[in-house]
Design a protein that fits this description.
Blueprint lengths: L2 H14 L2 H14 L3 H13 L3 H14 L4 H13 L3 H14 L4 H13 L3 H14 L4 H13 L3 H14 L4 H13 L3 H14 L4 H13 L3 H14 L4 H13 L3 H14 L4 H13 L3 H15 L10 H16 L27 H10 L4 E5 L4 H13 L5 E2 L5 E3 L8 H13 L1 H4 L4 E8 L16 E6 L14 E7 L6 H4 L3 H11 L3 E4 L5 E6 L2 E5 L13 E7 L13
Antiparallel strand pairs: 1-8, 2-3, 3-4, 4-10, 5-8, 5-10, 6-7, 6-9
Helix pairs in contact: 1-2, 2-3, 3-4, 4-5, 5-6, 5-7, 6-7, 7-8, 7-9, 8-9, 9-10, 9-11, 10-11, 11-12, 11-13, 12-13, 13-14, 13-15, 14-15, 15-16, 15-17, 16-17, 17-18, 18-22
Length: 571
């Protein structure tokens, strides 16, 4: 049998799908001679079987025989894309297209390499060129829609997936992409239906089951979301995203121990995955394992830290960051701006909450209507000084607000061991107030000398602890600068977006209810503990200039709002 005849037979077997037999014949030919065609077709066969590394070796051997073969160069570039070597793939595609700029298929594959490099605008242009040269490719239309999705042009992405499906109704990846676009548009019911179409075509596709679970979570269909994640994991037990989504579903179902186990499994598979670290921190806090939870948030913060940006950051943040840099330099600390810096904030060997307040504050809470108590000297002297150093020195002030203040969240590194100690001891010191309520969320805000503060709102919690730590001599007006609190609760039927985000609706409600306000003046180490349903806002701020005079307010929320459905939060 001549090599030419063997090659014809191998190609025939290849075309009929008898890939094992075809591969054997290709290998027999190559054992007897260096044959470009056999070597190239062997690479094609292995590419079809998604044996990327072996296919790459085969096509590299083909290119040694014919270095300028366009088809082999194109396949080589495709395989580099499949093995995530995107820069090399792009260079190879460009080499092919310099010889033949009208090679429409290569423009499409080039777009895929650009997607891997997250150069989504360039990828879109490459896909557009591919469709101009070779219209009617469902694959390119699908990939182009993916680029639009990545550019957050969701309506256009949806139309692109529909165009791909008009050409190939059985294109399961396009049904999945369509589901993601619908999900981004918050059309969750339609997204689930689209995922179901994809799964009818490819029922073993783990990523689609997992994406479907997220849409179901958004519809509060938690049992179904859990089942969808379990389907994903049945097909792909090492699918980290599915474990993460399962943890979200189990959290919503209040199956917290199982949720933590699922989040831990996700982190075994992806140890440095910020969303899973954030979720683990949240779950551990919910079962009152605060030290572990805070440690998870700190790991998240170190992974996601972004240094100050003198171009993109708003002016009030730039000013703060310059002042903080000068403060740290004055302490002789050469802090690297590229890394998160946490100053002190360690757990104390002694008490953090002043025990002298316990009895009389408990009595005030029981008799107060509405439930509001003011606690002076909340923290011990040692705790106050340590917390001040942590807030002044730590580069955790990452969130900027339009009214000009800055926020530090747990996921930014505002999760020191001392804060965990304070949160624990609040419950231990004031059991009458907190009962079984556990810490749900906390943050800090830092203000300039005369900026507006937090606008009128209520919080999604049972008990709100609000306290201040900037020294008293920074406050210019001892009768103000603290908290304005109203004697009216947010209506039970209001959703969070209304009582926590619609200031006009809140003020209209207070006016109709004839509600009265009370000003709690600013004092260092003063806390206001109150029913989180009560409307409240920051009082007028008049502080001295200077970094250490910036007003710092810390909030801790415990328990859940009685009328609120169970919530789940992702970063």
């Amino acid at each position: 049998m001549t090599p030419h005849y063997q090659l014809d037979q191998a190609l025939l077997l290849h075309q009929k799908g008898a890939l094992a037999k075809a591969e054997q014949l290709y290998l027999e030919i190559l054992a007897g001679s260096r044959n470009f065609r056999a070597q190239y077709l062997l690479a094609v066969l292995r590419h079809q079987q998604e044996r990327w590394t072996e296919a790459l070796e085969a096509v590299e051997a083909a290119l040694e025989l014919e270095p300028d073969a366009a088809e082999a160069l194109g396949l080589y570039a495709m395989l580099l894309t499949s093995t995530s070597r995107f820069e090399e793939a792009l260079a190879s595609f460009d080499r092919v297209l310099r010889r033949n700029a009208e090679y429409g298929e290569m423009w499409g594959y080039r777009g895929a390499a650009l997607m891997g490099l997250k150069r989504f605008d360039d990828a879109l242009q490459s896909f557009n060129r591919a469709l101009l040269l070779k219209p009617g490719s469902a694959r390119v239309l699908h990939n182009r829609a993916g680029a639009l999705q990545s550019l957050e042009r969701f309506e256009e992405a949806l139309a692109g997936y529909d165009d791909a499906l008009a050409l190939t109704p059985g294109y399961s990846k396009a049904w999945t992409g369509r589901g993601r676009a619908l999900q981004s548009l918050e059309r969750f019911e339609e997204a689930v239906a689209s995922y179901d179409k994809a799964l009818a075509l490819t029922p073993d596709h783990s990523k689609t089951w997992s994406a479907r679970a997220v849409a179901l979570l958004s519809l509060n269909r938690f049992e179904e979301a859990s089942a969808s994640c379990n389907k994903a994991l049945a097909f792909s037990p090492d699918h980290a995203e599915a474990w993460h989504n399962l943890a979200l579903a189990l959290r919503a179902l209040r199956r917290l121990d199982e949720a933590i186990a699922s989040a831990d499994r996700a982190l075994v598979l992806r140890p440095h995955h910020p969303p899973s670290l954030f979720l683990r921190g949240t779950l551990l806090c919910e079962i009152n394992h605060l030290a572990e939870g805070f440690a998870a948030y700190t790991r998240h913060a170190r992974l996601t830290f972004q240094p100050p940006n003198p171009v993109a950051d708003p002016s009030h943040k730039q000013r703060h960051d310059r002042e903080q840099h000068d403060y740290l330099a004055g302490l002789g600390l050469g802090i690297r701006e590229s890394e998160l810096y946490l100053a002190d904030g360690e757990r104390l060997q002694t008490a953090a909450i002043n025990p002298d307040n316990a009895d009389h504050i408990a009595a005030e809470w029981q008799k107060s209507r509405p439930q509001v108590v003011v606690v002076d000297n909340l923290l011990t002297e040692a705790a106050l000084e340590e917390l001040q150093r942590f807030c002044w020195g730590s580069t955790v002030w990452r969130r900027s607000y339009a009214d000009g203040y800055l926020g530090a969240m747990p996921e930014h590194g505002f999760a020191s061991p001392l804060l965990a100690q304070i949160a624990d001891e609040l419950c231990e010191t004031f059991p009458t107030i907190f009962g079984k309520h556990r810490l749900q969320m906390w943050w800090a805000f830092k203000y300039d000398s005369s900026l507006s503060g937090i606008r009128l709102h209520a919080d999604d919690a049972a008990v709100n602890v609000n306290f201040w730590i900037t020294p008293d001599d920074a406050n210019c007006n001892r009768n103000n600068g603290g908290l304005v609190i109203w004697d009216a609760n947010a209506p039970e039927h209001w959703e969070m977006a209304r009582y926590n985000g619609d200031e006009r609706a809140c003020r209209d409600f207070l006016a109709r209810a004839g509600a009265k306000s009370r000003i709690v003046p600013y004092r260092a180490n003063r806390a206001v503990i109150f029913d989180s349903d009560l409307f409240h806002e920051t009082d007028k701020i008049e502080s001295k200039e200077g970094y250490l005079n910036r007003r710092i307010n810390i909030t801790m929320l415990y328990g859940r709002r009685a009328a609120a459905p169970e919530a789940w939060r992702v970063p």
